Amino acid sequence: MNRLQLMKSPTLFQGEKYLNKKKNYFEGWYFKNTNLQKGISFIPGIHINDTEAKAFIQIITNHMSYFVNYNIEDFESNHNPFWLRIGDNSFSKENITIKIEDKSQNLKICGNIKYSNSQNISTNILLPNIMGPFSYLPFMECNHAIINMQNTINGSMNINNEIITFNNNKGYIEKDWGDSFPKSYIWCQGNQFQKTNASFMFSIADIPFKLFTFQGLICVLLIDNKEFKFTTYNNAKILQCDLKEDSFHIILKKDLYLLTITSKHGKGLKLAAPVKGKMTRNIFESICASVAVTLKKGKEVIFCDTSNMCGLEIDKSR
Length: 318
Hints:
Radius of gyration: 19 Å
Strand order of the largest sheet: 4-3-2-1-11-10-9-8-7-6-5
Number of helices: 1
């Protein structure tokens, strides 16, 4: 499958050509699963550099995070239909099955989650995913794709004898690939809004672009089936960005629309992130943050609601 075909289907494994090369590369999928009080996210992926090629699965809950190493030979992917396997664990857009026992981390987890009723952002030939026309550039440090803005999840996970049950709750799937995470960024995602069937994803990141760096913005608010995008490539502007250790307040503008985002995050738990294909950078994520979102068109309030069990990362470490 050539690069253009892969780009039109970003869910698929993009890095097959790097598996037998010592080129800096990473690729990881992010499966976030939450009920009203608890959550668990899985990040299966690979990383390759001049000294090693490994597969991994990262796990994060309300209170704990884990990094489980695998040999690259334990990684397998398929294009049609899409699925990937790492060891005894399988992942697709329809379900995930987990079976991990890592005595060194006192970790034992097993279970199955099924996905249905998937909703994604609108796409076309010019805007194949949330990165829009930047998706066509082969030299981007980090590529990002939203696979599902929202899906219905059913199933359960037993993690160290604690059972997390999902009964018509909400999930989210995205992915990243390239050689490194951005130098600094904010990322927030939520779909457990209190009053509205809505999903939200937002990120600001420093993007290296040949000889200079610019601040890239991607943001989507999906209210039922109506989509509002605020992005660098559709001329949205960041009017205000106030960051504190445990919160942020951001205002975005596009044409007549104003989007205000206020977040209070819980304890961040350590995850590993790539730097030139090596998983050597520590980042910190909460999956039980809260975010308040207000959308106005002129003086008219179109949307005002709060989501709990949000994913949130604020990182300026590199």
